[in-house]
TrEMBL record:
Residues 272-587 form the Glycoside hydrolase family 2 catalytic domain. Coiled coil: none annotated. Its EC number is 3.2.1.31. The gene is uidA. It comes from Cellulomonas hominis. This is Beta-glucuronidase. Gene3D superfamilies: Galactose-binding domain-like, Glycosidases, Immunoglobulins. It is an enzyme of class 3 (hydrolase). InterPro entries: Beta-gal/glucu_dom_sf (IPR036156), Galactose-bd-like_sf (IPR008979), GH (IPR017853), Glyco_hydro_2 (IPR006101), Glyco_hydro_2_cat (IPR006103), Glyco_hydro_2_CS (IPR023230), Glyco_hydro_2_N (IPR006104), Ig-like_fold (IPR013783).
């Protein structure tokens, strides 16, 4: 799916700002058919939950309405006119004046609504967007809605981060020509020092395809014709972790001498491959250092914010991180573009978090009922998951920073039905993208003895909390468990093994000379213990701590003002562990950086 872009043949208007806002219980039926009668305005992009002080808005379960007027530029009479929603969490209905113009389900992937036949160039229209925050057994992530004793509908879900909702990413009105480029797929490779750029272009309407590849200075390095082909670049500059280089692929649709459409896609030339226990980028062993993150901040919730984007990447660089995982949903596309430009490696995760009744069952890991059953993650959930994978890969397939798809976080891969649930999804992902390895983040109940699905995947990604949920305060025992666990996975699979989550909640300012949980010293000692273990295994390919920053959670007695496993606070101040990670990952103070241990 192509991101809207201003080109010689396309224009776009950004619709961010403040929109009229109301929850459904406070407006009449069909509120889109007139001006929303509401005193509230919501910022776009932002999750709406924390904008207002009224708990009835924050805790609302169901539809909310956003509304504004939009003027169509007068020069767009010959074009098709589309609305693009970068995300509407978790479902949307889009009304142009009185007409339902489009719908979408899935809170973290973009969608278009073609409004050409409903609007006029130079005219204006009333745009109303209904957004639902409901999570059920037919959504990804799943959830459950019950009517509580007070008569109100209550949303529960099986992940800890707060269910922020609304229009948390940008909204656009854009024009495309009637004959146009509709999709571009690029895969890259090398033949010695020559770069190979394979392209496939989809179009609508007549016209001949021409492509041009320019280097970072704008100099032409290769060109071709036709809807599919291979471009070769002599002495190619590869896209490398920590050393990004992007070419520009300009795709044009021609009719004789006339350019009907033009679109430019940044392209990084790199390869990704799993070989035995190694994870290879451009044929070189790669060791992941970095974080599981969240899109999360005060007031704006999951609202995309370029200032926070820049600052988070600054902090990642400061700490010596070379990568992150988009836990637990696809992030805004701007984040991936930034990673492309700055050489940060991304594990791109779906929104399939909480497919695990064992976690709900508590520390015993015993599910109250089977996870892979009709009442929970059944066929309808699987269909939603498949559609989500299509949309994720459709959006992110061309980002060089994305080196692996993570199809789920902590599914009940130890339970009956897991194989039947995941096999078709893995086949789908491989068909959509045969070039990138696949993984899923493994919950602690899924052991090397009882996991049922690892053979379908390429990389073992472990989420483990020895020294926190298991053996809190007892790092010596934790060390033994962790060692045995990693050894077990290496022996069972022969695949690369990495840690995608390990961490300890930490209250900044709390100190102790002993191994006291929640103190800054304990978080440091916890990481030191884990790193000691990791460094014993040459088959181990990476460490992503949980979490980059503290983040908001739903109310729960295990969370004190949110999840505090961040090595930065929610407002991005470093805890002692952030400094310790920086020393390790940057090799300061004679500390041994993880990558050096593994010869890359
Ligand atoms: C996990 C989950 C993550 C939680 C984390 C925790 O295993 O994957 O979403 O936030 O544990 O802190 O409990």
């Amino acid at each position: 799916m192509l991101k809207p872009q201003a080109t010689p043949t396309r224009e776009l208007v950004n619709l961010d700002g403040t929109w009229r806002f109301a929850i459904d219980s406070r407006v009449g039926a069909a509120p889109w058919s007139g001006t929303l009668d509401t005193p509230l305005e919501a910022a776009v992009p932002a999750s709406y939950n924390d904008l207002f002080v009224d708990p009835a808005v924050r805790d609302h379960v169901g539809w909310v309405y956003y509304q504004r007027t939009v003027r169509v530029p007068r020069g767009w009479g010959e074009d098709r006119v589309l609305l693009r929603f970068d995300a509407a969490t978790h479902a949307a209905r889009v009304y142009v004046d009185d007409t339902l113009a489009g719908e979408h389900v899935g809170g973290y992937t973009p969608f278009d609504v073609d409004v050409t036949d409903l609007v006029a160039a130079g005219g204006q229209f009333r745009l109303t967007v209904a957004v639902s925050n409901e999570l059920t057994n037919v959504t990804i992530p799943p959830g459950k809605i019950e009517v509580a004793a007070d008569g109100n509908r209550k949303q529960t879900y099986f992940h800890d981060f707060y269910n922020y909702a609304g229009l948390a990413r940008s909204v656009w009105l854009y024009s495309v020509p009637r004959e146009r480029v509709t999709d571009i797929t690029v895969t890259t490779g090398f033949e010695w020092s020559t770069g190979l750029v394979d392209y496939r272009i989809e179009t609508e309407g007549a016209g001949d395809v021409r492509v041009r590849l320019a280097d970072a200075d704008g100099a032409l390095v290769a060109e071709g014709t036709g809807a599919a082909g291979r471009l070769t670049v002599e002495d190619v500059v590869p896209w490398q972790p920590g050393n990004a280089y992007l070419y520009d692929l300009t795709v044009e649709l021609h009719d004789g001498g006339r350019v009907l459409d033009s679109y430019t896609l940044p392209v990084g030339v790199r390869t990704v491959e799993v070989h035995g226990h190694q994870f290879l980028i451009n044929g070189e062993p790669f060791y992941f250092t970095g974080f599981g993150k969240h899109e999360d901040a005060a007031v704006r919730g999951k609202g995309h914010d370029d200032a926070l984007l820049v600052h988070d990447f600054q902090l990642m660089e400061w700490s010596g991180a070379n990568s992150f995982r988009t836990s637990h949903y696809p992030y805004a596309e701007e984040v991936l573009e930034f990673a492309d430009r700055h050489g940060i490696v991304v594990i791109d995760e779906t929104a399939a978090v909480g497919l695990n009744m064992g976690v709900v069952g508590g520390m015993s890991g015993t599910p109250p009922f089977p996870t892979f059953s009709e009442q929970y993650a059944g066929e309808a959930t699987q269909a939603a998951h498949a559609q989500h994978i299509r949309e994720l890969i459709g959006r992110d397939k061309n980002h060089p920073s994305v080196v692996m798809w993570c199809l789920a976080n902590e599914p009940a891969s130890n339970e009956e039905g897991a194989l039947e649930y995941f096999q078709p999804l893995v086949e789908l992902a491989r068909e959509l993208d045969p070039t990138r390895p696949l993984t899923y983040a493994l919950v602690m109940f899924a052991t090397f003895q009882n996991d049922r699905i690892i053979d379908l995947f390429d990389v073992v990604s472990m989420n483990r909390y020895y020294g926190w949920y298991v053996g809190p305060g007892d790092l010596a025992t934790a060390e033994q468990y962790l060692h045995g666990d990693i050894q077990g996975w290496i022996t069972r699979t022969g695949k690369p093994v990495m840690m995608t989550e390990y961490g300890a909640d930490t209250q900044p300012g709390l100190h102790s000379v002993w191994d006291q949980v929640w103190t800054e010293e304990y978080q440091v000692a916890f990481y030191e213990m884990c790193h000691r273990v990791f460094d014993r295994f040459p088959e181990f390919v990476g460490e992503q701590v949980w979490n980059f920053a503290d983040f908001a959670t739903s109310n729960g007695i295990h969370r004190v003002g949110g999840n505090k496993k961040g090595v930065f606070t929610r407002d991005r101040q470093p805890k002692a562990a952030a400094w310790a990670l920086r020393r390790r990952w940057r090799g300061l103070d004679g500390a041994k950086p993880a990558p050096a241990t593994h010869e890359n």
